[in-house]
Amino acid sequence: MSATRRVSIFGATGSIGQNTIDLIRRDPHAYEVVALTGGRNVGRLAADAAELGAEIAVTCHDEELPALRAALAGSGVEAASGDAAMIEAASRPADWVMSAIVGAAGLAPGLKALETGATLALANKESMVCAGPLMLAAAKRHGGTILPVDSEHSAVFQALLGEDISAVERVIITASGGAFRDWPLEKLATATPEEAATHPNWDMGQRITIDSASMFNKALELIETKEFFRIAPDRIETVVHPESLIHALVGFTDGALMAHVGPPDMRHAIGFALHHPHRKPLPVQRLDLAAIGQLTFRPADETRWPALRLAREVMVAGGLSGAIFNAAKERALDAFIARRIGFLQMTDVVAETLDRLSAEVGLNDAVIDLDTVMQADHLARKAADEIIGHQGADLWT
Ligand code: NAD
Ligand code: MG
Hints:
The chain is α/β, with parallel strands linked by helices. The protein has helices spanning 15-25, 42-52, 65-72, 83-90, 107-115, 125-142, 151-159, 193-196, 206-214, 216-229, 266-275, 289-292, 307-317, 321-337, 345-360, 370-391; strands at 5-10, 31-38, 56-59, 78-81, 96-99, 119-122, 145-148, 168-175, 236-240, 246-252, 257-261, 298-299. It has a seven-stranded parallel beta sheet, sandwiched between helices. The chain has a five-stranded mixed beta sheet with strand order 11-10-8-9-12, with helices on one face. The protein is globular, with a radius of gyration of 21 Å. The chain binds nicotinamide-adenine-dinucleotide (NAD) and magnesium ion. Nicotinamide-adenine-dinucleotide binds at residues 11-17, 38-39, 60, 100-102, 105, 123-126, 150, 202, 204-205, 207-208, 266.
């Protein structure tokens, strides 16, 4: 048995964070927990930090610090708040770090962890979308490793084990189709946030669930595939697979397709990254294929899901367009959740933001460092907010 491993979990109170804690809790003596971070759910954060004996618990909201301190009183766990504290926690030496904050806010802490040489289990797909080259360069420079945790990318990673990347002809990312897969197109304009926040197969955070209905999540994942595996955009495909049992397929030059099949349970991809390079037993359901009977596929229609078309444009443009795409998407999603714009208007906001900023920030040839990425992110949020202001209406009153 190896010595205990030092682990940190960013976004510990979220859906991925809690699934990660579930796995660690099953074998507590194998791990020494360094930092847990979260947001407003300081009760959960403090309880987990105390149970796991973490060094430090950090909330991103300064106003929650007194509550976090009170909840941790007498536990021996340090309490802290705010962005600087997040970065300080991320700079503490750890062997394995889970990056599971939602949104572009996950970029800086994950990057800092990579700079310590840690293995970064990357659930935060936005890091790769906004700053793929920066993430890969940081890992290389500091001897760190990035392991994908998004189920599709874990699937591709596993299908590529022992393979020659130059023999890869295509990568096929599957999509469940989300909440509105079978809705008539004309109904989509009036879809509400509550309707969008239900997923047929996966149990995830609210934002990624709505992003599944609009396929902005799949769009981010296509860009993530290009950035992570360095695969040309025209070799990356999407297919709708309503059962969500095949997570991705890799096609090779000899015509073989390697598919990764498993239940829709993120503990598989998290556990794979946690135990890599070994495989260990995981508490996920074993599939009974005869009981499942059939797996089905349909084309991913870009009329129903225009976010997929935008993803192609972003993959081809490269540079800072991923950061702009993601920031505009985050603001459009906020506005949809706040009922300021309709479901279909999210794509319009993102498309218009990309159009507006493409000239302004030199999308393709800008240097990608944390400053330029954060600047592009900032400009895109501002532009998206302006565009939303013009569109805004109270749609469901
Ligand atoms: P979630 O909303 O359930 O949890 C998000 C976590 O981030 C929480 O701990 C929250 O407190 C923290 N957080 C939110 N805003 C923050 C900020 N500004 N600064 C610091 N911390 C902040 O989200 P989730 O579903 O667990 O997803 C996390 C990430 O993993 C996302 O990037 C998502 O796309 C990705 N992912 C999730 C799933 C899934 O099954 N949930 C699957 C694949 C990939
Ligand atoms: Mg995914």
